[in-house]
């Protein structure tokens, strides 16, 4: 026992040391990139003085060399590059879409990039949010993203907005940029960003990726439609998925995010034809990309239409969470549908297992979730199948012996986070299983409160 305790102590000491060294390394990286930025700034100032006659387009020898492959493109050239260097883009969300968009925007030679994000880097972000790395887990995404951008190009000006975009700060932040990229994943943010862009007259490059599919379009560009012209009313809340709930193949937002950078670069440099009034639909499973024509600006649009009176004041007073029936925060919604009598905590459930209580545990997650990880002896009946599979629950209960107290076996329900389990219990009560109870917070609280080694996803 003593030697295994010693090994555990050693392991935690080493982990602490690694953590401390990683923190030191990030600090040093940041200091280096700050100093490099300062140095580049000084160099470009002296170069301009020496090359006054040559650099009519404002590009220093360093920048000419850095962007030579852009400059050699006949359709892009010095003119496109020069416009880029005077433009600014705001990227809202440094996640799956924002990651590739920001990397390419930093590389391309834009004058200024703004990054809005209130979140921190987590391990389960890294399969798609390629701007972040393991050393930044637990750090703010804006810090991680800004450091990655500056590593590529220390001459770009980066402004970090470590906050969620809300009606209280959006006008102020968005007004500082020429073009906006919506790289968020929820309905209230989409409406909020759209309306803010309409009010301030900014083009909006909008992207979405969910599962194996992606979408891209440009709103509010030179008389083209805005998001509300197409979707005057928000979708039903159940149709509004987020990748934290439904999964996403990492490379799909990667592709859409790159396309968002492309559209922003085209608008900033006045090169090519931005994807306004059209929408790109990507089906990654069949590798099909379709461009569909979408409706033009609607004269009836509440925000950009002919008779619209949507002012900055209206924007500030608009309740986007209420309008879309969805919270702005990315924190998962916690429902409370049952009275405390019909709920037990993960710890209480563990005690009942230890006491040998006769019971049946039904896990109502979809089958492919159940395959990732499950609690011992759980019976998987997805929420949508409960009515069809009532018989399975009855048989499972019958197979159990009554408890020593004589009471019949208990019925518990679990899911991932404790919302679907409550819906299932409500349904089971209606179906006659009147004592069914749910495990509060699902397998996530089991992992948190009972077994820290239990995998979460
Ligand atoms: Zn509109």
Automatic annotation (TrEMBL):
Pathway: tRNA modification; 5-methoxycarbonylmethyl-2-thiouridine-tRNA biosynthesis; Cofactor biosynthesis; molybdopterin biosynthesis. One of its GO terms (cellular component) is cytosol. ATP binds at residues 96, 117, 124-128, 141, 185-186. The active site is at residues 243, 415. InterPro entries: MOCS3/Uba4, Rhodanese-like_dom, Rhodanese-like_dom_sf, ThiF/MoeB/HesA, ThiF_NAD_FAD-bd, Ubiquitin-activating_enz. Keywords: ATP-binding, Coiled coil, Cytoplasm, Metal-binding, Molybdenum cofactor biosynthesis, Multifunctional enzyme, Nucleotide-binding, Transferase, tRNA processing, Zinc. The keyword Coiled coil applies. GO terms for biological process: Mo-molybdopterin cofactor biosynthetic process; tRNA wobble position uridine thiolation. Residues 355-455 form the Rhodanese domain. Binds 1 zinc ion per subunit. Zn(2+) binds at residues 226, 229, 301, 304. SUPFAM superfamilies: Activating enzymes of the ubiquitin-like proteins. The keyword Iron does not apply. CDD domains: ThiF_MoeB_HesA_family. It is found in: Cytoplasm, Cytosol. Its cofactor is Zn(2+). HAMAP family: MOCS3_Uba4. In the N-terminal section; belongs to the HesA/MoeB/ThiF family. UBA4 subfamily. Plays a central role in 2-thiolation of mcm(5)S(2)U at tRNA wobble positions of cytosolic tRNA(Lys), tRNA(Glu) and tRNA(Gln). Also essential during biosynthesis of the molybdenum cofactor. Acts by mediating the C-terminal thiocarboxylation of sulfur carriers URM1 and MOCS2A. Its N-terminus first activates URM1 and MOCS2A as acyl-adenylates (-COAMP), then the persulfide sulfur on the catalytic cysteine is transferred to URM1 and MOCS2A to form thiocarboxylation (-COSH) of their C-terminus. PANTHER family: ADENYLYLTRANSFERASE AND SULFURTRANSFERASE MOCS3, UBIQUITIN-ACTIVATING ENZYME E1. This is Adenylyltransferase and sulfurtransferase MOCS3. The gene is MOCS3.
